[in-house]
Amino acid sequence: VSNGTGLGDERTTSLLLLGFLQSCPHSCFQRELETLGHELPGRLFHDDELQTDGNRYSHFPSAAAAETDSERQEEAVRDVARQLAQIGDRLEGSIRPGMVAGLASRFSIRSLSEEDRRQCLAAALEQLMQACPADMDHEKTQLLLIMLLAKKMADHSPALLRDIFRTTVTFINQNLITCVRNLVQNEMD
Q1: Is the pLDDT of residue 161 over 50?
Q2: CA atoms of 82 and 20, how far apart (whole Å)
Q3: What is the CA radius of gyration of the chain?
Q4: Which SUPFAM superfamilies does the record associate with it (predicted)?
Q5: Where are the domains positioned within the chain?
Q6: What is the mean predicted confidence (pLDDT) over 5-22?
Q7: pLDDT tens-digit map of 67-96
Q8: Cβ partners under 8 Å of residue 22, min gap 6
Q9: What's the CA dihedral at 92, 95, 101, 105 to 10 degrees?
């Protein structure tokens, strides 16, 4: 995903998490999520400008091939996000409300550093992984659980969505980016 004209890791992970969260239509944080989606850099889920002949406007003629590749990758990321959300529906019950409330209260402490927030996520993820069956793909399960934690925390405290989103994207990029790349690449193949 990160080679050539592809999406950057940060953008890919943001797109993945955004798509995952958007696949949760009955969540309390939908308004905040819509606002966040419009604030993210790049073309994440935004339509390109269309010319009157129906063609996409491109500032650079040679950008058409790169644009098509990027669009394919974005669609693959959205597909992966939807698939993970469907799998997540089955695992969601394994996340205790007390854990979610505790994490949300930690995230609401403004003096807590970004690193401390990531450590809170890592500790919660480690607890959740101990309860998962050993036959599940380790990295994919971690990715799914970290995104479920983000969803549950945002549902518990919608006002914290930006902080939760940023910390989760950073956590994924630091710990699970290979898994993200592989899932997207497999979807594109």
Answers
A1: yes
A2: 6
A3: 17
A4: Bcl-2 inhibitors of programmed cell death (SSF56854)
A5: 9-40+71-188
A6: 88
A7: 677 889 999 999 999 999 999 888 888 899
A8: 33, 37, 81
A9: -100
